[in-house]
Amino acid sequence: MKGWRPPAPFLLLLPAVLVLAAVVIIPLILSLYSSFTPFRLTQPASLYTFVGFRNYARILTDLEFWTAFGRTVLLLTVALNVEMLLGLGLAMLVEKATRGQRLLRTIMMFPMMFSPILVGFQFKFMFNDNIGLVNNALQSLGLTNQAIPWLIDGSLAFFAILVAEVWSSTSVFAILILAGLLAMPKEPIEAARVDGCTPWQTFRYVTWPFIMPFAYIAMTIRSLDVARAYDIVKIMTDGGPAKRTELLWTLVSRTAYADARMGLANAMAYVAILLSIVFTVYFFRKLSAARTQIAAEW
Amino acid sequence: MATVSLEKLVKRYGSLEVVHGIDLEVADREFIALVGPSGCGKSTTLRMIAGLEPVSGGNLKIGGRVVNDLPPRARNLAMVFQSYALYPHMTVRENMGFSLKIAGQKPEEIAPQVEEAARTLDLTHLLDRRPSQLSGGQRQRVAMGRAIVRQPDVFLFDEPLSNLDAKLRTQMRVEIKKLHAKVQSTVIYVTHDQVEAMTLADRIVIMRDGYIEQVGTPEDVFQRPHSKFVAGFIGSPPMNLKDAEIADGQVVFANGDRLPLPARFKDRVTAGQKVTFGLRPDDLYPTGHGIHSGEDADVHRQDLRVILTEPLGNETLVFSDFAGAEWVGRMLNPRRLSPGEALPFCFDLSQAHLFDRESGRTLRG
Ligand SMILES: Nc1ncnc2c1ncn2[C@@H]1O[C@H](COP(=O)(O)OP(=O)(O)O)[C@@H](O)[C@H]1O
Ligand SMILES: [Mg+2]
């Protein structure tokens, strides 16, 4: 028997291809396909009913979805800006430190070492209206004598989530910007001072253009993070009260597992991923523009 | 246009004092060169003048006004850095116009000034490039252009040519000299290269370990060094400096070789005094191949054995053996010499120097 033998490279790559297919490609195709069906976990047969773009059409007019979408974008915008400012401030302070800079850098990374679930629990406790640290502190300082319903009022809960997010991830900005500051040549700053710049002008015209690419890298990383924000919210409010802190991914998971409407949930997930891609592309554009500007060699 | 005065200027880093109370008066429009070996405090001094380093003690005056605590922007000076320190994200045009923009001038006022400076420095065709697209020499010129555009009271240069190759360095040296003639500003120029200092400066300040060793015109520091250090630092190749003792009205070297005591030191030394004898290569030459310092030159003749020669074309450096050491001489209208050859040399003793061996100070009045 003269059997056909596949070429060696093909054979050698085959295991990798099989593993990739099993864990990435097939689930991806399956989920994409299921977003075109009315698939419910409780009715497996519904997986075979093809409904075209009905799920997507439904999302387009779904107020709940767009509210969660808008809230996610809002959280992303506010969190990224606040983290950017705080991270920049932190990085500049640490860069000024003449002693113990290494220690400060390590301490700065602590929040990143905690699981987001733990951060969620921690802040849930701190913002608790009865026994929380925040109310306790406010009352002791005499700033208020009421128990502020942090996690119960919609916008206060949003604020509490924002604080938790910012606390846990400002260090991403701080570390990347610090890396930029440390890599920056010192002479242009001195040249700017001699050229007549005030400290603010020196920052604005010399330091900032230089660290901008580093800030954009942090933005890219963090925009992906926040666009898929789930764990902290899940723990702190679970999208509540009355869906007033619902974000994209808490909505997706509720639709998928609580309502068991997997097809619709998958469609939502693909729209959400689109959002992430848009942000990533946007920040990458900014990054490469900023890099060309400072003629970076990387 | 301004004078600069340093009065007992001190710089400390923590408990480490690196500039020890130096005094210096720089006249308006003067070109001053600060020279000295690496680490002697030249940059530190310059940076204090610029306002980039706080003054730890003494007074710093620019145009008669004490500026110790003024930030750099209030001092109206321009500085050219060794690494050029161009703004990497700005074009040449923006780099050069930056200080004017900061000063609040309008773009249409800035443009002609930048273009004028670019013409002077032959940078017109590069105005829209970024620093990363320029060669070292071009970056250097942009750095100078940026300084000129500011029209400062005082120009500060910190080893501006040390990153250039030898040819470009010579060329830029001439450019800087022309520039000073044109802009007529006060210039303080730091270099470790004594040739740059000699060719450019009106006066040279020689620094060593945070002290000023000597201040003087190039002729001064070359012909009348106050100390052994200055004598050895200025001049290339360096002055021959050999330890000796005074005995029987002669200069006696360690191995017993002798030279007559130069006439001008007769009354200034005592028998048994430990000295360092100094003679420049120009004043030690094979007979017939050098120039006496004058008709009444006090020339001592002696046969020396040649160890090694370095032909430079128009002249040859001759290393010869005397008093158990190697002495450098300069041979004009050179002919070929072979190592080991003995030939008559002239020591022009009227140009010789004697320094106290302990203190290193000159023994001349
Ligand atoms: N930031 C600093 N901290 C401590 N010592 C310094 C600092 N900057 C310079 N020095 C010391 O001051 C001395 C003079 O330095 P510098 O002025 O740079 O010398 P140079 O004459 O080569 O320009 C050197 O011994 C140097 O080690
Ligand atoms: Mg230096």
TrEMBL record, chain A:
Record keyword Transport present: yes
Membrane-spanning residues: 12-33, 73-94, 106-127, 156-184, 205-224, 267-284
Membrane disposition: Multi-pass membrane protein
Protein name (Swiss-Prot/TrEMBL): ABC transporter permease subunit
Keyword list, A-Z: Cell membrane, Membrane, Transmembrane, Transmembrane helix, Transport
Residue ranges occupied by any ABC transmembrane type-1 domain in the UniProt entry: 69-283
Organism expressing this protein natively: Shinella kummerowiae
This protein's record includes keyword Iron: no
Cellular compartment(s): Cell membrane
GO CC, one annotated term: plasma membrane
GO biological process: transmembrane transport
Family from the record: Belongs to the binding-protein-dependent transport system permease family.
UniProtKB/TrEMBL annotation, chain B:
Gene name tied to this protein: ugpC
Top-level taxon in the UniProt lineage: Bacteria
Domain ABC transporter: 4-234
Subcellular location: Cell inner membrane
Pfam (any one): OB_MalK
Gene Ontology process terms (BP): carbohydrate transport
Similarity annotation: Belongs to the ABC transporter superfamily.
GO cellular component: ATP-binding cassette (ABC) transporter complex, substrate-binding subunit-containing
Organism the protein comes from: Shinella kummerowiae
InterPro entries per record: AAA+_ATPase, ABC_transporter-like_ATP-bd, ABC_transporter-like_CS, ABC_transpr_MalK-like, ABC_transpr_MalK/UgpC-like, Mo/tungstate-bd_C_term_dom, NA-bd_OB-fold, OB_MalK-like
Descriptive protein name: sn-glycerol-3-phosphate ABC transporter ATP-binding protein UgpC
PROSITE patterns referenced in this protein's UniProt entry, alphabetically: ABC_TRANSPORTER_1, ABC_TRANSPORTER_2
A GO MF term: ATP hydrolysis activity
Membrane topology: Peripheral membrane protein
Sorted UniProt keywords: ATP-binding, Nucleotide-binding, Transport
Predominant localisation class: membrane
